[in-house]
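Narrative summary of target 7.
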Amino acid sequence: MPRAKKTPAKTIALKKGVKKTSLRRQRPTADSNLAEIAFRPGIMSDQPSMTTVSNSKVRVVLGIIVLLLVVGVIAYLKRGSFLAARINNSVITRWNLDQRLEAQYGQSVVEQMISEQLIFEEASKKQIKVTPAEIDAKIGEITKQLGGQVNINDLLAQQGMTMTDLRRQVEVQLLVEKLTVGLINVSDQEITDYIDKNRSSMTATDEASLKQEALDALAAQKKSTAVQKWFADLRAKTRIVKYF
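Modeled conformation, tokenized:
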């Protein structure tokens, strides 16, 4: 039998090496797969993709722009709430105005508000009220005293007041009158003495009218003194804390 042709050992070794090498190339390792996957955007990565980050930034910027536009529109429409006046390129803010008014009139306004509140509380304790009809009647008397020469609304505007302010002042005045009823007493002798001293300056002519005029004058004088004392006593027994 013919002998089988022997393949040199070196050639076999080379063939084996080629097979091993081609096997390694055809079968990527687990590490190479992971490395390839790791570089794919958005896969097995804790960091967001560049597209996602860009979209988020755009939304934030647009939101800020819209917010600024809304604030700008509101500020323009409500500019009277922030500005008191504009002089060329300069402005006087409401804050500047409030600071000036507070410095000049703050104390007197606070005292007036305290006085009004004390009177309202005292009237409430004693269940004393003033009706709108009574306020209207008093304002009617004031209007009549003007004689039709001056419009009451124009007069209030000149003094920086409104009809609401006037009605409140009238209500306070009427409450004080009701709260201080009985505090004064005018005797007949006081009336006679007043007429004797002031007859030449009095407008009445008959005796009854003279007595009534004297009574009204004396009552007004006494009432002013009595009301001042009444209010001083009311304030003295009230706990008042001012933070202004």
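The first helix runs from residue 9 to 26.
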